[in-house]
Amino acid sequence: MSLSTLKRWVTDIADLTDPDEIIWCNGSEAEAQKINALLIANGTYQKLNPKIRPNSFAARTDPRDVARVESKTYICPKDQADAGPTNNWVAPDIMRAELEEKFSGSMRGRKMYVIPFSMGPVGSPLARYGVEITDSPYVVASMRVMTRVTDKVVKKIADGADWVPAIHSVGVPLVDENGNKTEDTPWPCNPDKVAVVQFPETREIWSYGSGYGGNSLLGKKAMALRIGSVMARDQGWLAEHMLLIRVTTPEKKKYHIAAAFPSACGKTNLAMLQSQIPDWKVETLGDDIVWLAPNAKGKLRAINPENGLFGVAPGTGLSTNKAAVDSLREGAVYTNVATTKDGDVWWEGLTKEPPPNLTDWQGKAWDPESGKPAAHPNSRFCFPIDQVSTLSDNWAEPEGVEVDAIIFGGRRASNVPLALRSLNWEHGIFLGATIASEQTAAAEGPIGKLRRDPFAMVPFCGYNMGDYFSHWLSFAKTLDPARLPTIFQVNWFRKDQDGKFLWPGFADNMRVIQWIVGQLEGSDSSKPTPIGLVPKAEHLNLEGLEISDDQLAELLDVDRSAWVREAAEIGEFFEGFGDRLPTELTEELENLNSRLRAQV
After folding, report:
1. For the chain, percent of residues with pLDDT exceeding 90
2. How far apart are CA 388 and CA 374, in angstroms?
3. Residue range 175-190, pLDDT digits in tens
4. What is the greatest pairwise CA distance in the chain?
5. Do 208 and 106 contact (CB within 8 A), yes or no?
6. Measured at the alpha carbon of residue 296, what is the angle toward residues 294 and 298, in degrees to the nearest 5?
């Protein structure tokens, strides 16, 4: 592609959407100040008390625009089978006609911003480039935090670099086709006509109607995962919904661990874990997205392609994630949190008791007796990653870091033990492919309902997930299996018969990380079960924890009858992929059933 191609594309989109003005963004501080002032003037931002939260803002969305809209997210290859059973599909020609109708005149009366951005350090062999067009100043401000917005990307495109075109509109023109003007609102959106569309074959993204998070910040889930997964498949790497940390042992040995959890299942807390175990250290490299690619030595190297954090606020507090709270002291944008009388922010879990006279996420006086939360359950904070107090000094290494272990996890009240090591690479892919989690507020749908979310990628895989499983399995053929990361599974959320969590979680998850490192170093600290290798009870560091022997046994228990039922459910889930399911996973399910039968 060339610079002339980029300019022609911008002109074509402007002709379609009819904005008042076209503004090319460069990511500068002066530009950021101008956008922030505009957002305050528009009523989108409320400036927080600079003595408490310097250079920080609170935003409130339309109550109908508060989460990812998976039911209105589409993957549109030519062949429906290439989208697979986990994606919504519409034929590309039909979808393009619908989008042209939606976007026609959608920016009348608004400014059109052109945002050149890099996912990953500019110039890194693992970086990929995109350009987002939007009519939302909130998106401009947020993209500057979450990606590397710079005119260096335009230079890369001029030099021939590939780039992903991404078009976004809130879908609320301020002037109709007859020239009649309407007043703007602090949070313009068109929730009844939302569509978040990916065309994998042409690597295009179109998003209409929502101003919220992953629906509008198109470098994040749309490019880095949905289109990114397609690029990764075609180019021999992996684009994953993962965190990335570095663990340093008392002997100063360093291990890099990537972990996949569905949204709102503790990714940010683990990414910013502060070890309470003497002489053990955890550092943050990324909290949400990881790109992995083989290097010349046959190891998988990883980068965090993002430049900021967009985390779930509720549950984040001094007792659960002190590093996050410390990192949020300044330069942050809070969306759908509560605000205090003195110009600070609050959400459930930030402190034990709420401060008095709160204004809730909808801008109304909050009644503590109402039973309603003050902050939306999916309220968010957004801030630059270089403010993270636990940030690793090599988080932006252009060549990435070598990954030693991969963890899969979900929110399970039963069945899944606290920790589990895979038997081999294929078994590890089976673990990833069968992850199930209780639904959270990060996406629409009934909270608490159990759903299969392979690799925590169901909302984000841009092609047939059966083929995605095959792509993961292929690395055992293209690389030395002995040099591949060791795969683990964890479950911080197991409950007892009274519905109480058995494991304290948060900072104490370091104890499981310690066991994982022991496994990487060859420690004899695990025992076989039908579903994999679980920790030996005596080899888990429980010093200082009030956990009884019975509770520990329940945390590590693998109930045969429950797993016979789970295996049957996995079989039913696999049937949905038809002949696109790799035979290796069918064999792994047969192996699981054989081990369960042998346990009788």
Report:
1. 92
2. 26
3. 998 889 999 999 999 9
4. 77
5. yes
6. 55
Q: Helices (H) and strands (E) in the chain — how many of each?
A: 16, 29
**E strands in 354-459:** 380-384, 401-402, 405-409, 419-421, 436-438, 450-452
CA distance linking residue 528 with residue 424, whole number of Å: 13
388: which DSSP letter?
A: -
3-state secondary structure 184-252: CCCCCCCHHHCEEEEECCCCEEEEECCCCHHHHCCHHHHHHHHHHHHHHHHHCCEEECEEEEEEECCCC
Distance CA 403, CA 303 (A): 10
Local structure of 281: helix, strand or coil: strand
Contact between 141 and 333 under an 8 Å Cβ cutoff? The reply is yes
Query: Dihedrals φ, ψ of 234, to 5°?
Result: -75, -25
Which residue, among 472, 427, 478, has the nearest Cα to 298 in the 3D structure?
A: 478
CA-wise closest residue to 187 among 279, 69, 62: 62
Say if CB 230 and CB 121 are below 8 A apart.
Answer: no
Question: Angle at which helices 228-235 and 465-478 pack, to 10 degrees?
Answer: 40
Three-class DSSP category at 579: helix
CA 375 to chain centre: 20
Cβ atoms of residues 276 and 507 within 8 Å? yes
Rounded Cα gap, residues 224 and 119, in angstroms: 7
The mean pLDDT value for 473-480 works out to 94
Q: Where are the beta strands (DSSP E) in 351-507?
A: 380-384, 401-402, 405-409, 419-421, 436-438, 450-452, 486-490
Cα-to-chain-centroid distance, residue 290: 9
Contact of 361 with 372, CB cutoff 8 Å = no
Phi, psi of 21 (to 5 degrees): -155, 150
| Residues 228-246 pLDDT 10s | 999 999 999 999 999 999 9
For residues 273 and 281, what is the distance between their CA atoms, to the nearest angstrom? 9
Residue 1 pLDDT exceeds 70:
no
What DSSP element (H or E) covers 41?
helix 29-42
Q: What is the C-alpha separation between 381 and 335, in angstroms, rounded?
A: 6
Residue 147 to residue 153: CA distance in whole angstroms: 11
Measured CA to CA, the distance from residue 334 to residue 375 in angstroms comes to: 10
**Is residue 600 scored above 90 in pLDDT?**
no
Q: How many whole angstroms separate alpha carbon 211 and alpha carbon 137?
A: 10
Digit-coded pLDDT (tens) for 487-545: 999 999 999 999 999 999 989 999 999 999 999 999 999 999 999 999 999 999 999 99
For β-strands 308-312 and 380-384, DSSP reports them as antiparallel
Beta strands 128-134 and 338-339, pairing class: unpaired
Give the three-state DSSP class for 83.
helix
**C-beta separation of 243 from 406 below 8 A:** no
User: What token pair was written down for 227?
Assistant: 């289109």
> Hey, which residues are catalytic here?
265
The length of the chain in residues reads 600
pLDDT of 418 > 80? The answer is yes
